[in-house]
Amino acid sequence: MITPEARKTILNKALEIAKTLQKVTLIAYYQDIADYIEDDELFKENNGVKKIIVMKEDEYEENGEIVEQIEKIGQIIKVPSIIFNRVNKIKIALMMCTSSGILSKEDDVIALSGTSSGVDTLMFIDISKEKELLSFKGDIDLEKSVKPEVFERVLRVALELANQGREGKSVGAIFVLGDKEKVLENIKQMIFNPFKGYSPDERNILKANLDDTLKEYSLLDGAIVIDCNGVVETAGAYISVSASVEDLPKGLGARHIAAASITAVTNAVSIVVSESTGDVTIFRNGSIITRIEKVS
């Protein structure tokens, strides 16, 4: 059993390594380090360590005073209020930070993770060389494809779909984000476009509450296409391109192959929810960036 003293030692060591190496970012989940946030020795405002504290959305909404305190010592990023295992917590934090430009390919990271009992895991990550948690083929900057807030919103929807399903059933889905013109050239509409006739503002996931709408239309066969600014272009779209995606792992189904293929011939990003496993896979440049496994 890991004692509170042992957990504090892990946290101390992480800060010690970060101070020694410099230019290293410390990432930790609030739920893992909540007992130590008020420790002045550990979390001084100016101790030379760049800190990113990850909070679940419900934690952020329910802890106003804590949020103010954390903002004095580091940067907060929000993730969906879903249960993740140790590794997935790190994957999601890295994905959110790289998609928004908070972290770059040149950054080194000390990532802390743990269970509901607290921090118990420390990982040192060189993003430029990382292949297990996060793998970029080419440019890491997703902002060139899609606005960070659009990517984060759709990823949240995908993760919620993967964990909760729809109407009590597991669902699969493809979301294609960005590079609208080229994407539309490589799809065929399978059904009447349910978003046709609505204004861009009414179709914008950042301006209208379309989370449930996206989840509902994920039940349709085909992809949901969203432009770089968050405007939903269509749903029920068949991806008609077949590109060479030789470096994908064996055993992926047609949905994943289609999602990879569209990103191989466009500058889009695809997010896929697997109906059979509940895993969420993110593609760019015809390759998998990361896969977030559903917690069983």
From TrEMBL:
HAMAP family: DacZ. This is DAC domain-containing protein. It catalyses: 2 ATP = 3',3'-c-di-AMP + 2 diphosphate. Pfam families: DAC. GO terms for molecular function: adenylate cyclase activity; ATP binding; diadenylate cyclase activity. Keywords: ATP-binding, Nucleotide-binding, Nucleotidyltransferase, Transferase. InterPro entries: DAC_DacZ, DisA, DNA_integrity_DisA_N_sf, DNA_integrity_scan_DisA_N. Signal peptide: none annotated. Residues 130-294 form the DAC domain. PROSITE patterns: DAC.
